[in-house]
């Protein structure tokens, strides 16, 4: 529900032609000192569980 | 990098979507650079190639062939309904997103004219697309459907000068097959033969969601067994905690698998999101040798609200369930607290049945959890990912790696990375302090309450990141300054990037609304072209929905 809600909002902004249509949801990898997409973390967790 | 080489070697065998994903990951890691319509290997990428055993000559050969020319092809992203053919060419990511966007707004229609007769051996369906968007027409032309089935009128056959002419009854088209070709069929029926044109709504009929729900998982799912929808669903259980209802958790502890610190961390975060502030903590261990004093404290003295209370029960003997029942009944009139009955498997059934039998008396949300059985490698990766350490998780390859450690307890693995997370935050703060970056990072207040240290640390990290990694001048970075009616945590002027750090503490059930407000408040603001919503750690995403269910949307959002 939460992400759908967020995604819908973002999509609406995007369709309205708002310049902020580019939105990233990120967290931090302090080891690499960079931002990483939250979804990438989710994908890695899934991969780990399948390994 | 091995994946990259694999990609090069098998570009004809893998889907365009996978290629795009690989390229994005590689670019994120700094190994390649996607620019305009070409892909370049960075110097870091060259070094990485060497590391996997290629010699100088091979590297040079690769470098000559890459810059890979990136030719257009439509990928399956959001368009399972469109025909595509992987012919070693791909669209740039931004073009794909643009096309997806355009197609959604003005879905093109397929126009196929059913001819009266056709020349059999050279026939190709004369397909056209109709769309209000010139961009769609430009790009979609690359992905025309194939002819699937041509039904002919047996009564009509003309042979002229060795050429065969037949009369079609219907034409079936096969739409793109990236997801499921069998469902991608559009037919022009016989009944419409008299109609010179027929709009076959391929794009609409094949509209379906490409779900990546099974491709991502959240941290809770990683550590705990989850049975969706009931008392054994810790994910939805924690996502719906409210400030005015207590929670009783029976946490079953298999032998040699201590995980209570992992659970307590999640409860801590949940409390902060639901209530704000910090909970009190209590921890009691009931065992035959210590039951006297501890039992007294747990069962008679401990009645503080707003706590994360753990009662560890190791043996059946010291548990006086009647006294415990009386204390738990007190919860009914209280607000949020988490009472965790952390029980050995030997007493688990007894405690679970006890809680179930009396659940109505406690007035509490009941959750029953078990840890997932994880290998050492899985545990290491999961613990690293819980704190955002993607790089470390990737490096774990088992044998021969220096990263590998010998722990098998979730407690140890998880808290080790927790410690590292906070230490790294502090180290970056100190570095930023020396470099003069912290001087530019104002503290923030909300409703006259000072921000959390976590929030401030991450603002410092963000400024540090742009200055040190992206080479942005510190004077180009504004922290906690008004812009377009909002106050972004960090605003990078030259990039038009507004960074919003969302701890969500104190937002309660309405935290999605908070996220929405964060996005909405910059509507119409021309100074901002991009918003980065930064979640402190994956452990703060206790709601799995942010990771799963609709991750394709996230992909599109980017």
Give helix % range of chain B.
25-40%
Mean pLDDT of chain A: 73
Mean pLDDT of chain B: 70
CATH class of the largest domain in chain B: Alpha Beta
What is the total tally of β strands of chain B?
Answer: 21
Number of helices of chain B: 20
The amount of beta strand of chain A, in percent, is 15-25%
Helix percent band of chain A: 40-55%
Global Rg of chain B: 30 Å
The largest sheet of chain B is: 5 strands, parallel
Structural class of chain B: alpha/beta
Net shape of chain A: flat
How far is the N terminus from the C terminus of chain A?
29 Å
Identify the CATH architecture of the largest domain in chain B. Answer: 3-Layer(aba) Sandwich
Q: How are the strands of the largest sheet of chain B arranged?
A: 12-13-14-11-15
Beta-strand proportion of chain B = 15-25%
Q: What is the 3D shape of chain B?
A: extended
* Rg of chain A, Å, rounded: 14 Å
Q: Flag low-confidence runs of chain B.
A: 7-14, 65-94, 175-213, 397-405, 547-558
Number of domains of chain B: 5
Unreliable spans of chain A are 1-5
Structural overview:
The complex is a heterodimer of chains A (51) and B (558). Chain A is α+β, with helices and mostly antiparallel strands. Chain A has one domain (2-50). Chain A has helices spanning 2-15, 38-50; strands at residues 22-29, 34-37. The radius of gyration of chain A is 14 Å and the shape is flat. Residues 1-5 of chain A have low confidence and may be disordered. Chain B is an alpha/beta fold. Chain B folds into five domains: 2-69, no CATH class; 93-205, no CATH class; 219-369, Rossmann fold; 376-422, no CATH class; 435-557, Endonuclease, Chain A. The longest helix of chain B has 25 residues, at 410-434. In chain B, 38% of the residues are buried. At the A-B interface, helix 1, strand 1, strand 2 and helix 2 of A face helix 5, helix 8, helix 15, helix 16 and helix 17 of B.
């Amino acid at each position: 529900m939460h992400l759908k809600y967020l995604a819908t909002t973002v999509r609406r902004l995007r369709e309205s032609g708002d310049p902020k249509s580019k939105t990233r949801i990120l967290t931090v990898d302090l080891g690499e000192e960079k931002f990483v997409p939250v979804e990438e973390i989710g994908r890695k967790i899934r991969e780990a569980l399948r390994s | 990098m091995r994946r990259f080489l694999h990609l090069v070697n098998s570009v004809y065998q893998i889907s365009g979507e996978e290629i795009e994903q690989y390229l994005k990951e590689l670019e994120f890691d700094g190994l390649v650079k996607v620019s305009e319509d070409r892909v370049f290997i960075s110097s870091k990428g060259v070094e990485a190639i060497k590391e996997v055993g290629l010699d100088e000559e091979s590297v040079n050969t690769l470098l000559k062939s890459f810059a890979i020319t990136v030719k257009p092809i439509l990928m399956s992203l959001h368009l399972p309904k469109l025909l595509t053919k992987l012919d070693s060419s791909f669209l740039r990511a931004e073009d794909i997103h643009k096309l997806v966007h355009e197609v959604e707004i003005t879905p093109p229609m397929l126009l196929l004219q059913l001819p009266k007769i056709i020349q059999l051996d050279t026939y190709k369906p004369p397909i056209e697309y109709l769309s209000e968007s010139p961009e769609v027409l430009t790009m979609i032309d690359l992905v025309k459907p194939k002819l699937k089935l041509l039904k002919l009128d047996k009564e009509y056959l003309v042979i002229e000068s060795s050429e065969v002419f037949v009369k079609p009854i219907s034409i079936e088209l096969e739409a793109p097959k990236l997801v499921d070709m069998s469902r991608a069929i559009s037919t022009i029926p016989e009944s419409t033969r008299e109609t010179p044109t027929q709009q076959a709504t391929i794009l609409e009929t094949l509209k379906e969601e490409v779900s990546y729900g099974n491709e991502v998982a959240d941290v809770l799912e990683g550590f705990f067994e989850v049975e969706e929808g009931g008392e054994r669903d810790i994910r939805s259980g924690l996502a719906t905690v409210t400030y005015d209802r207590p929670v009783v958790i029976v946490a079953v502890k298999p032998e040699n698998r201590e995980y209570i610190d992992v659970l307590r961390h999640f409860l801590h975060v949940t409390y902060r999101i639901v209530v704000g502030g910090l909970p009190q903590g209590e921890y009691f261990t009931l065992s035959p040798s210590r039951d006297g004093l501890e039992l007294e404290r747990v069962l008679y003295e401990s009645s503080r609200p707003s706590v994360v209370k753990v009662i560890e029960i190791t043996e059946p003997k010291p548990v006086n369930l009647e006294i415990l029942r009386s204390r738990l009944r007190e919860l009914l009139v209280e607000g949020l607290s988490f009472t965790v009955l952390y029980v050995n498997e030997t007493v688990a059934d007894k405690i679970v049945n006890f809680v179930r039998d009396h659940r109505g008396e406690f007035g509490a949300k009941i959750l029953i959890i078990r840890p997932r059985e994880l290998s050492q490698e899985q545990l290491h990766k999961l613990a690293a990912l819980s704190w955002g350490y993607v790089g470390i998780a990737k490096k774990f390859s088992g044998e021969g790696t220096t990263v590998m450690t010998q722990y098998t307890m979730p407690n140890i693995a998880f808290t080790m990375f927790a410690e590292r997370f906070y230490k790294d935050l502090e180290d970056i703060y100190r570095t930023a302090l020396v470099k003069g970056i912290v001087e530019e990072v104002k503290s923030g207040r909300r409703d006259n309450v000072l921000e959390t240290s976590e929030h401030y640390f991450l603002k410092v990290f963000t400024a540090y990141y742009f200055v040190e990694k992206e080479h942005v001048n510190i004077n180009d970075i504004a922290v906690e300054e008004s812009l377009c009616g909002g106050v972004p945590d960090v605003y990078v002027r030259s990039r038009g990037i507004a960074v919003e750090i969302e701890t969500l503490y104190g937002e309660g059930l309405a935290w999605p609304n908070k996220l929405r407000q964060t996005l909405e408040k910059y509507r119409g603001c021309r100074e901002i072209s991009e918003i980065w919503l930064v979640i402190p750690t994956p452990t703060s995403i206790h709601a799995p929905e942010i990771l799963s269910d609709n991750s394709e949307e996230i992909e599109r959002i980017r």
